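Late entry, written up from scratch paper. The run itself happened at the end of the previous shift, but nothing got recorded in the book at the time, so transcribing now.
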Amino acid sequence: MKVIESKAIKVGIADLKFVKAPDTIRTSGLGSCVGVVVYDATIKIAGLAHVMLPDSQSAKKTDFNQHKYADTVIPTLIDTLLNQGARKFALKAKIAGGAQMFSFSSKNDMLRVGERNVEAVKGVLDEYRIPIISEDIYGSSGRTIEFSPETSILHIRTVSQGAKEI
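Output as recorded:
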């Protein structure tokens, strides 16, 4: 009997990585950030973006990190998967995060980073016509997520709320 070893590929904040089964892909520190997994279940390939901010319009061009923003990282995620052999019609997404980590008395939209991140992620995925199969969003607790392209299951550990799978 052959034992297949797998490893967990770690994705940092404002980062993007790809994985093929049997390896898994994970990120932690999802507070107001959103973890976006796009995958092709048939060929068992996936990419994970750790989205920090909704859009790059106000970004400073001097130290620009395209992996930080929903509007720049998701197109890169999709294009790279397609270049790796994924099929456009087979792509699906799972998302988690977008928490409101602090309570504010102000109604200032700029403070709703988690909500704005989720809206931006959903908007870009919709533009590309990639269905969101499941989501674990909002709330007020941080998350760690790990996706298996082998099973297409997203494992989510939420601070002080335990674990679940979507």
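The chain has a mean pLDDT of 91.
(Scratch paper discarded after transcription.)
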